[in-house]
Amino acid sequence: MLPQAERLKKSSEFTATYNQRKSVSNSLLICYVGRDKINPEKPVRVGFVVSKKISKNSSDRNRIKRRMREAYRSVIKTIEPLRWQSVIFLARQDTLNADYQEIEKALENCIKKAQKRF
To answer: What is the pTM of this model?
Structure first.
């Protein structure tokens, strides 16, 4: 689990990140990035979203979120530090049937695309 200081929790924080309109995507995930960091000492705040359109069962949605969180934790160690205040990862329908390695590759791909683009 991510530390509390690294999590997006409030609806206003999610809305502010969505309103930046900076996103990249692949077949499994959509990645929204927020503003650039003002204070480099503060950690990047991350949110994971799985809609009810993906699955009506909460256990399926929670499993996808757990896999995305763990993939983020392992990917963030291997790449250069993120330069945004906030990041949101939104799952797509194919994520339900994907295994952990596919989710990890998709998440890493999204982060690298966003770093090149923004």
So the answer is: 0.93
